[in-house]
User: Fold this.
Amino acid sequence: MTRIILIGYMGAGKTTVGKALSQSLALPFYDLDWYIEERYRRTIPQIFAENGENGFREIEQKILHEVAEFENVIISCGGGTPCFFDNMEYMNRQAQTVYLKASPDVLFQHLKMGKVERPLLKDKTEDEMKQYIRDSLAIREPFYSRAQYTLDVSLLENYDKIKDSVRLLRELLNL
Ligand SMILES: Nc1ncnc2c1ncn2[C@@H]1O[C@H](COP(=O)(O)OP(=O)(O)OP(=O)(O)O)[C@@H](O)[C@H]1O
Ligand SMILES: O=C(O)C1=C[C@@H](O)[C@@H](O)[C@H](O)C1
Ligand SMILES: [Mg+2]
Assistant:
């Protein structure tokens, strides 16, 4: 039975690489953020605005418990999922967990065009974003580093980065 969960900071590539990995393995792909949006018929920014971050985190845990029961799937979670409740221990019990690791500079490059859909970044200037990424990554790293596997994508060349990430993940997980 294959059940892989990708974790990591916002912009690390969990959704992009998770989708590509699922296509390469011909397995269904579940993205926690997308699943939440579909189930609750609201966007992530709307849920943050209406329920607050705490409300979002409760929804996120509930949906994690649903999706992490599925078999033969690739799952990408939200950037904050591992850092709340006992979500990280739960994921490690349920699945093979992989930390997609990237440096603050690479994360900033990935995120600078995608601020609007990420409520934690949307009101920040570029300088504030850089600082926020550095500070919050330092807080989150101890959670992420509890994953069973780590793939550092910082050093991959932009050209064919997604394909390379998939190849390296398949090597790492023997798939
Ligand atoms: N390995 C990669 N190669 C090329 N581009 C990437 C890679 N990882 C991320 N990107 C780019 O960075 C952006 C953010 O990636 P993505 O949405 O997959 O991140 P995420 O980890 O799912 O973030 P979030 O936690 O906010 O859901 C995308 O536009 C994507 O094209
Ligand atoms: O890192 C985070 O806390 C988040 C990441 C996104 O995937 C979304 O789950 C949301 O924008 C919060
Ligand atoms: Mg994502």
